[in-house]
Amino acid sequence: MESNEFFPPREGVTLAALAEYLGAELADESTGKRLIHAVAPVSRAREGELCYILSRKNRIELETCYASAILCDKALQSIIPAHIPVLLSSRPHTAFAMAGALLYPSAMRPLATVASQPDVSPAAFVDPSAHLEPGVIVEPMAVIGADVAIGTGTRIGAGAIIGAGVKIGRNCSIAAGASILCAYLGNEVIIHNGARIGQDGFGYAPGPRGMLKIVQIGRVIIQDHVEIGANTTVDRGTMDDTVIGEGTKIDNLVQIGHNVRIGRHCGIVSQVGIAGSTRIGDGVMIGGASGINGHITIGSGAQIAAMSGVVGDVPAGERYGGVPARPMKDFLRDIAEMTARANSRSKKTGDTQ
Predict the structure, then answer these.
(1) Exposed, middle or buried by CB within 10 Å (0-12, 13-18, 19+), for 125?
(2) CATH 2.160.10.10 occupies which residues in the chain?
(3) What is the pTM of this model?
């Protein structure tokens, strides 16, 4: 790929300085003055670029690699071509993430829609009762409602809507087109484009003339360092709060129902649906396109495989998968048995033809 005008290479950092920043070991200290300007995939990395490998499966990609450095575990050092300097790390994936953040700080948050403007655009609407600390940026066409409070360093993107009474902490990024209603956000929260936070949840009671709407009078509480992806929706609580715990990362196109409580440092991948009043512990990982039933508990440290249907409680630390979701060893055994039966039927069909 040619030079990217959206995220151009930076001036450069020496390998020696990069190694110190990452807590990595530079295998050949004589290469310490080489400059790293950018990151790239192994197969097409060129001079001035950094890449990483996690497995010997990458060996064939090294044949076309001319990076100025490769991050890897010591166990993989022997497969790196002699012309490429090596940065040794016991956690190369984490180290590469740190390097990317250092080289591309602007890519760590939603990009500003307007590069240069007054702190509060004259094309935005800010209610006179709203309190904005110094250093808050409000882009054109954003709407800030009555009694809103926003902390210093926060950016409100173009066309975003911040509803009455919402409180947003410091150094947050609310991207273009997002809406935040009936919610309190902590510090360093990132909300991507088009996310919907705090709309009423899906609650109805059957009546003689059809479905009767149940009022949704709770809030959404989003703690520090949470990131919520584009077009994700987080419903406010019915009478309690919907809570997203500190450090949790939520992908694009996720639906989180009313009264859901998600713990700290969880990872929830795209197209997951979590029904109302579910309780999710700390450090839970949920794979893409999974469906989580309401009023159940997923214990801390549990892992849910992609495209699973979770209908009951999941114990802490367990790995579940399948529809309905069950312990991973049972799921894999069932898959193996179904595959064996399918192969047997196919063989029998072939023998009779």
Answers:
(1) middle
(2) 125-329
(3) 0.91
Q: Which two tokens stand for residue 75?
A: 């166990």
Q: Looking at residues 232-238, what average pLDDT do you find?
A: 98
d(CA 134, CA 111): 21
pLDDT of residue 353: 60
pLDDT at 350: 64
CATH H superfamily, domain 13-108: MurE/MurF, N-terminal domain (3.40.1390.10)
Q: How many CA atoms lie within 13 A of 104 on its CB side?
A: 19
Counting every residue written for the chain, the total comes to: 353
Please tell me the CATH code under which domain 125-329 is placed. 2.160.10.10
| pLDDT tens column, 123-144 | 999 999 999 999 999 999 999 9
pLDDT digits (tens, 9 = 90+) for 154-202: 999 999 999 999 999 999 999 999 999 999 999 999 999 999 999 999 9
Please state, in angstroms and rounded to a whole number, the distance separating the CA atoms of residues 53 and 43: 11
pLDDT given at position 111: 86
Peptide bond into 324 cis (omega under 30): yes
Residue pointed to by tokens 């450069």: 12
**Can you give the C-alpha Rg of the chain in angstroms?**
25
- Does residue 131 have an active-site annotation? no
Q: What are phi and psi of 44, to 5 degrees?
A: -130, 20
d(CA 193, CA 212): 32
Catalytic residue among 83, 93, 192, 258: 258
User: Rounded to the nearest 10 degrees, what angle do helices 92-103 and 15-22 cross at?
Assistant: 120
Q: In whole angstroms, what is the distance from residue 212 CA to residue 205 CA? A: 5
Give the residue from 308, 305, 268, 271 showing the smallest Cα distance to 284.
Answer: 268
Q: List own/partner pairs for 261-266 with CB under 8 A and 24 or more apart.
A: 263/300, 264/223
